[in-house]
Specification:
Helix content: under 10%
Number of strands: 11
Shape: globular
Structural class: mainly beta
Largest sheet: 7 strands, mixed
Radius of gyration: 13 Å
Strand content: over 45%
Order of helices and strands: EEEEEEEEEHEE
Length: 129
């Protein structure tokens, strides 16, 4: 069973930075997609960034170069460095994974995560104006 556990959320002023972490365990395969989704109150969940086992990355347009997704220790650790945070970035951030990864990263991030197989419990991000 795959387990994803996020950490690193918190409260920062606009323009601040946070680094989210996700620790993954229980991977039976070496091919995977992992990424971050977010959901603000009253809004649909949306993809933010994703990375695959080859190291390819993808970002949603609203990231605009402010966020960086990375991984370490093969597939065990996933990070999201978020800089220049805006109030509209606030919400619950979820680590997500598909193992194995059978589609493009864009497809993985589409549809609010309806193609995601595994989810973490989420970590809250608050950005004050």
């Amino acid at each position: 069973q795959v387990h994803l556990v996020e950490s690193g959320g918190g409260s920062v002023p606009a323009g601040g930075s946070l680094r989210l972490s996700c620790v993954a365990s229980g991977y039976p395969y070496s091919r995977y997609c992992m990424g971050w989704f977010r959901q603000a109150p009253g809004k649909e969940r949306e993809g933010v960034a994703a990375v695959d086992s080859d190291g390819s990355t993808a970002y949603k347009a609203f990231v605009s170069g402010r966020f960086t997704i990375s991984k370490a220790n093969a597939q065990s650790n996933l990070y999201l460095q978020m800089n220049s945070l805006k109030p509209e970035d606030a919400g619950m951030y979820y680590c997500a994974a598909n193992i194995p990864c059978s589609s493009s990263l864009a497809n993985f991030m589409s549809g609010g995560g309806d193609k995601v197989n595994y989810w973490g419990q989420g970590t809250q991000v608050t950005v004050s104006s």
